Amino acid sequence: MDANAIGKKGEKDACKYLKKKGYKIVECNYRCRFGEIDIIAENNEYFAFIEVKTRNNNSIANPSEFVNLSKQKRLIKTAEMYLMSHDVTKQPRFDVIEITNISFLNKKIELIENAFGV
Fold it and tell me: How does pLDDT run across 39-77, given as a tens digit for each residue?
């Protein structure tokens, strides 16, 4: 599987995970001139802009460590564009979902809430 296919599979798995945790998926792969947000979802309290990072077990770092300062700035700008064009009443936040493929059928999914701020 190529990197793009792995990423798309990870996003699909992340959506399933979020739904099980009671989130409503608002949008996937929102794009504007500043970048892309993998998943936009909401729960009872928060409106979450979520970056999904999928890596295999022998990666040099945790998946969330690949959301560096530059990526965070792009996500923040993209979220600002979204918020300007949509009526959002809940508190926004930025989350990261880490998916670590331990084996072909075994994966670890972790939601890091409020992973970074503005």
Answer: 999 999 999 999 999 877 666 667 677 889 999 999 999
Backbone angles phi, psi at 10, to 5 degrees: -60, -40
Residue 17 amino acid letter: Y
Task: Note the pTM of the prediction, 2 decimals.
Answer: 0.91
pLDDT band, very low/low/confident/very high, at 2 (cuts 50, 70, 90) = confident
**Residues 113, 21: contact at Cβ < 8 Å?**
no
Are 13 and 28 a contacting pair, CB within 8 Å?
no
Helix (H) or strand (E) holding 90: none
Integer Cα distance of 80 and 92 in angstroms: 10
The domains located in the chain, with CATH, are 3-116 (3.40.1350.10)
At residue 39, what is the residue type? I
Task: For residue 63, give the nearest of 2, 17, 104, 7 by alpha carbon.
Answer: 7
